[in-house]
Design a protein that fits this description.
Oligomer: single chain
Structural class: alpha+beta
Largest sheet: 8 strands, mixed
CATH architecture of the largest domain: Alpha-Beta Complex
Mean pLDDT: 91
Low-confidence stretches: none
CATH superfamily of the largest domain: Nucleoside Triphosphate Pyrophosphohydrolase
Length: 237
């Protein structure tokens, strides 16, 4: 009988600000390489939602906002109002992973309060503000380790012209929810998403719609084959 991994509720926030040269900066934190989950990866501030936060909240979304405000303060020293958090997607860890998180993703404009960042040096080892396009380029050159939800979130936010524009637009964009399914094709790891012809059977070689992320030597590559998928691209406004 296949063992099941308990699903933990979690929340994360893409903190953005207007860059000096125009465009959008995003705050990325590098996780301690020794951590069991996403060790060494560059991530957005966030973490698990504590049970008391769930018990005290009117909904899981409300608990997620409380938790991510706390996590932002603990992980990087910034104070963000829950009113400024814009929910735009939800990711659940694929089956087969040692740890499973159902994670709410928010975006918040911190242009007016992006002061000194204070990291703990334990769970988080480094931080950097990067222009979104630069972060994606660094990933493709092998210099920035990202996970699929981080990569797809950056790809989406890169389509907007300013931090305010991104937050305003995402407030009215219908949030998506996804649980990837992992498989391999010709020795390459692939994340399959809903709408892909191979999603239900976890068979990447089936003909038909394509909705997936490839883990290539040049970083992740996202593919959405168009209207045949039946769900909107995760990297488009």
């Amino acid at each position: 009988m296949e063992s099941t991994v308990p699903v933990r509720l979690a929340a994360t926030a893409v903190l953005v600000r207007d860059s000096v040269g125009g465009g959008i900066d995003v705050l990325l934190l590098r996780r301690n390489a020794t951590l069991a989950f996403a060790g060494g990866a560059w991530v957005f501030p966030g973490g698990a939602i504590d049970p008391p936060e769930v018990a005290a909240a009117s909904s899981d979304k409300a608990a997620a906002k409380v938790a991510v405000v706390r996590e932002i303060r603990e992980e990087c020293g910034l104070t963000v109002s829950s009113d400024d958090l814009v929910y735009f997607c939800h990711w659940t860890t694929p089956k087969g992973e040692k740890r499973c998180f159902a994670t709410w993703f928010f975006v918040a404009n911190v242009t007016n309060n992006a002061g000194d960042i204070l990291i703990d040096g334990s769970e988080i080892h480094e931080f950097q503000w990067l222009e979104v396009d630069e972060a994606i380029s660094l990933h493709h050159s092998g210099n920035l380790v990202l996970m699929p939800p981080t990569y797809l979130s950056l790809s989406l936010i890169a389509k907007y012209g300013s931090a305010e524009m991104a937050c305003s637009a995402l407030r009215y964009r219908t949030p998506y929810a996804v649980t990837p399914r992992l498989c391999q094709q010709d020795g390459m790891m692939i994340c399959l998403y809903p709408g892909d012809s191979g999603y239900e059977s976890i068979e990447p070689n089936l003909s038909g719609p394509r909705h997936r992320t490839f883990f290539t030597p040049k970083g992740m590559q996202y593919e959405h084959s168009g209207n045949d998928v039946g769900v909107s691209p995760m990297d488009q406004p």
